[in-house]
Amino acid sequence: MKSVIVGTAGHIDHGKTALVKALTGIDADRLEEEKRRGITIDIGFAHLELPAPSSDLLRLGFVDVPGHERFVRNMLAGIGGIDLVLLVIAADESIKPQTREHFDICRLLSVRRGITVLTKSDLVDQDTLEVVRLEVEDFLRGSFLDPANSPIVAVSSLTGAGLEELKRALVEVAAEVPAKDSAAMVRLPIDRVFSMKGFGTVVTGTLVSGTIRKDEELQVFPSGKRVRVRGVQVHGQAAEQTIAGQRTALNLAGVTREELARGMMLAQPSTLHSTLRADVSLTLLRSAKPLKDRARVHFHSYTMETIAEVVLYGKKQVTPGETAYAQLRLSNPALLLPGDRFILRQFSPVVTIGGGVVLDAVPVPRTKKESLSFLMMLDGGDSTSVLKARVARRTHHGLSVAQAVGETGWWKQKIEKHLSEPLSKGTILRVGDLFIDSGTIDGLKQSLAGAVADFHKRNPLVPGIGKEALREEFDLSPEVFGAVLEALVREKKLEAVGELVRLPGRSVVMKDEEAESKKTIEAAFASAGLKVPALKDVLGGLKVDKVRAQKIVTLLLRDKVLVKISEELVFHRDVLQELRRQVATYKTKSSKIDVAQFKELTGVTRKYAIPLLEYLDRERVTRRVGDERVIL
Asked: What pTM value is reported for the model?
């Protein structure tokens, strides 16, 4: 059964609610005040099933909205998820102010289909009706309700005249409505919250995408609270699931009525994120005043509303009828995705001035020029181009799959499908869970190779730069750094030796006095045996300065010519090797050795004996047991 959501629009007292009741038999005015005052204050709901040409049933869900200018904000909460509109114009009054405002709102929300209904036709004669029809045709010409493509039906809710013709028109227009994506991520804007005895908290809304099943877990935005779907109703009937395009009521567990409100949204848990900023394309109505940069406005999207500041890109103001790119800075967080439509109303007096479409709900800090170029791509590009642009703007940080899902509202499979071609061509690269632009990787390769070359120039006595120091210099994640370094090594532009990175074939270049100092240091420790001098004393007698002397020591330690066994003691490797031989020979006499015996064996004082024994323990030549060492 195909489900289509029909919204009413039009001036107060033009018969919207009466028309819905005449079609469905349901009074959409549910509030006591509405019945007492005879006007619609809040949105109401009804439903109707009609036979479709394909012999299936067509299920129409009606969203009846208030026409009074004071309740346009309520009208906006109901009109956001509709598939087609009934623009209701009373034959005895013709086009009035809210007719125009509601019609503008429908155009700004990009409603594509509808029917114009001339109500109260029983109150005028045929000539008057025809005059009104001509006036309405002229008003609608060139719009989505152009009489050349969209029907105009005269009816009387009181006598029933024209209702059958209207039902036939509804079936024909509804047949053209494309089905909403029931396989997409769930998003249900909440338009009503109440409690039912024996059930608990209930919310209603028009499911704009996805499928919700009984016992499924959802997340409330912007609060982030998790809830469980205890029960599902579609048009008042219990169901196991509800799909995109249906009027839906959900009985929720894990949340109280007080924790929910109109304007919140139910969505897939742990996938999407609320935002306080959104980059958009906005259009100002021709009837509006110029909109200045940094102006405050009322922002409406689906059932939510908040105050927003309009920050224009590349302009000081938007003139009436003009379209511009801007960033909307919201006072309260909202769950928005690319493609969401919105309405802007003037801050004061509160009148509709424009609307548009969300392009990016996850803006990243960039220059206005870069942002403008990016938004132009989002506005006109296909899915693949849009994703490539989103990857490129993340530069060396890359775009993770989770980030791509959160930015687009697409499932992982759809993202990978649209990136499969650039991945196969190598214009986008996959590094672990990240997508990275190949141009960014090329730039990083060039920068890293240049940084290593510069390091060698500044540090001729150091064999290479540490990997971690190089990574931190460019603020790269371990995954991205590893991928770039691996590519450079594969291309023989760099070498990775242990924890050091260097240019291929690079060796330490020493001046004569540096080479002489190196020999002096090595000789000093080789000749000293186990009674080594203090390192500072050895360095103090060299011809080179302290900094270069320390670099030479670092080089000797790296090549393991010298071995540092404590903060103060450094030994030549040949001396330590001889010590190992001595201990091994001693084992033929005894399997254990204490400090006194070790001092006697080596001829050193306690100052050297204790650090040397601890070194042998670390090297697993000995193992301490009490006051003795077992020779292994």
From this structure: 0.79
